[in-house]
Design the sequence.
DNA sequence: TTGTAAGCGTTATCAG
DNA sequence: CTGATAACGCTTACAA
């Protein structure tokens, strides 16, 4: 790595002259500027970012802490984050909490010692359950945090959330009112998360508002979830619609229904949660709730970048990104 | 952010005393050590990592540059990378090239100015096609690079590759020899990538070795790929097996076949490329080639960490991770 | 046992 | 127009 000092020696000028010349300062004469920049290019000089960071006490790096990258929703959000940060000359360092509280804490403490200017987080499942949130309290005093999707009400920071309750409420109501469905099954495998609870409650409200019965299956992947769904459907022939509240069980439900030789959407309508590939891997194409992960990521990082740019402390806001019901082929035509 | 200097002032000792005390140096007396650590804890002192990095000219950060995170294969690899790096006290900053040469170059130059100790890359599609690889040549002189999956033969560095040719060759041969298939269709949507070419060639070799005819569909997502597959199958009723060489078209093929009321695997066997969710979103469960993304990520980062740890320059190696044929329900029982 | 000072690579202030 | 110097926060010879 070639440094200012080496350039200075080779050119027989001082370090500060080189520095100024390279930043095109008006203090430096055109002739020297040219000499300097030419040698710098030749030797492929790049200012050492670590040194700049130390000097400016700004890293231009954002710490992103997510539970997983193999969940397509988070992958999508991270993609949105990357795009916006890139446009604002920020890099990101990603830590994966793996839904573990301890891993999340470690990541935070590691990054909080000057490595990043701010954080974007979706809190780990274990953190939500145990509700051990000291690390957020500590950090939020020093560096701005933006939380998305899985947020903590008791932490004072900017938040970007999905209107989980209303989204599922409306999807359920759609099935009842527009498709005249009366026996709607909800399939859930994220019951313990706050977002999961909101979604279930949205479903319940819509169903109860129409004086219908709730039908809920809670899955977890250990068992054989497709069998469970199939058995349930066989035992409950009255089911005429399914709502799945995560990105995978909707497709599983669709496959189960097909296996029972029921017609979709004639006999049973299905609405799942969408992700980038869901329409490619389902047939007929799954009707989905699109959570707009990309936009969520963009908004979260824009808020963070803006916060870092403005000196005055503005009050914390919670922005809501409205999910969109995308009617494809597993619901009847509108 | 509390610094050594502040601690020193508060304790009426010198900065170096504080520094040594905190690193439990034998030079410092127990009494002062105690005073120092207590105040440090109280004030939540964390050494500024940027300063440490400048001092040691080591960042303990690895730059990871991948084409996409929404491709589950890369998400899996990144997960493997994160795990291994975490175990070795490294962080990672991720850049997404989005398959763009220019974005890839920018990422490299940005990170190469001291921000990271080394790189892990899968090269962008555009880079492979245009074969503009100057940025790799430049960087590889200063920082170690490990390439995975999409590698560049002309760059001298460590590599972790998948045996694409043999994997598909063997899968095809399996269909021919064990399942007695004679009309095998290959579906591809990554023809232009080197890995895609290898896979196609593996297929061709197996087919031709048995004096069978090759049948290939090239897809791209703009058109309506499922229709294309369906039409092809309808026009070619003799097809009795399908190999798909990416993570998504295998499931598409399965759905198309079912739509034509053919039985899987009785009438048609299908083998796709697997990813974490493929068995959950297919029914019957797709038989897949498992590329072992997680292991690839682990190995790539282990190699990089080892390289950084050892002073002597060892020769560059190319390691091969053997993919595994996982026979599920879309092939006949072995 | 503790303190002083130099240095990592930059930038910025101030003199020359 | 150019150069010396200090500072960012830390580590580490070397002195005391």
Sequence:
């Amino acid at each position: 790595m070639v440094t200012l000092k080496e350039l200075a020696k080779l050119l027989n000028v001082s370090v500060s002259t080189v520095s100024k010349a390279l930043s095109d300062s008006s203090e430096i004469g055109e002739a020297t500027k040219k000499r300097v920049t030419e040698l710098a290019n030749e030797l492929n000089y790049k200012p050492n970012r670590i040194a700049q960071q130390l000097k400016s006490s700004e890293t231009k790096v954002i710490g992103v802490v997510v539970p997983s990258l193999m969940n397509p929703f988070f992958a999508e959000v991270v993609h949105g984050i990357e795009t916006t940060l890139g446009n604002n000359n920020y890099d990101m360092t990603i830590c994966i909490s793996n839904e573990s509280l301890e891993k999340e804490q470690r990541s935070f403490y590691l990054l909080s010692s000057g490595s990043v200017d701010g954080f974007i987080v979706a809190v780990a499942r274990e953190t939500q359950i145990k509700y051990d949130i000291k690390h957020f309290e500590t950090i939020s005093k020093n560096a701005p945090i933006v939380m998305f999707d899985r947020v903590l009400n008791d932490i004072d920071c900017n938040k970007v959330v999905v209107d989980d309750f209303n989204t599922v409420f409306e999807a359920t109501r759609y099935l009842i009112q527009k498709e005249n469905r009366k026996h709607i099954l909800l399939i859930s495998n994220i019951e313990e998360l706050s977002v999961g609870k909101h979604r279930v409650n949205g479903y319940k409200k819509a169903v109860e508002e129409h004086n219908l019965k709730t039908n809920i299956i809670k899955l977890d992947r250990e068992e054989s979830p497709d069998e469970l769904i199939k058995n349930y459907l066989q035992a409950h022939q009255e089911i005429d619609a399914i709502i799945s509240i995560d990105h995978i069980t909707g497709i599983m439900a669709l496959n189960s229904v097909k296996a029972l030789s029921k017609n979709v959407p004639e006999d049973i309508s299905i609405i799942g949660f969408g992700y980038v590939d869901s329409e490619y891997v389902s047939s007929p194409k799954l009707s989905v709730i699109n959570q707009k992960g990309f936009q969520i990521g963009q908004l979260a990082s824009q808020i963070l970048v803006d916060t870092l740019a403005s000196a005055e402390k503005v009050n914390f806001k919670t922005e809501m990104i409205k999910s969109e019901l995308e009617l494809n082929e597993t619901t009847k035509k509108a």
The longest strand of chain A covers residues 61-66.
